[in-house]
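Recap from last week: sequence in, structure out.
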Amino acid sequence: MIDGVHAVELFRFADRVQSVTLRVACDAPVVPGEESYYAAEIVLESDFVNGTVGLHISGGGLDEWGRCLDALEAEEGVEWPPGGRSAWLSVVPDDPLEVTVHDSPSTQIAVQVPVDVATGWLEENRLRLEHVREAIARMRPGGPTR
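Predicted structure tokens:
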């Protein structure tokens, strides 16, 4: 579980019954370097099942998520993050939206959640992406002042 103090939501797919959210710990990279990696967790909540799975994402992963949002806007399905080395999700823009969380390679469990997203969900998730980028930039040494 990541500390909620510096955690920022990268995405949220939710309706009145269930949600799938990804929170990023923006305070310090767990793998610093030219391509820093940040701790994150996918949180799935529903009346049927609740779960959390951890992963690490990089700035490149954030860029890839931006491309995924573009694909979802074009009504194309996406898988993110690429690489298959950690937990990942697939999103199919049906009605309702189908979000599948995969805990790979550790448990090989996948949970599919149909989410009846509200109007404006895509724009809200674009704003969340920008907030994560801004939070990481603020926390970087030499980044903008807090």
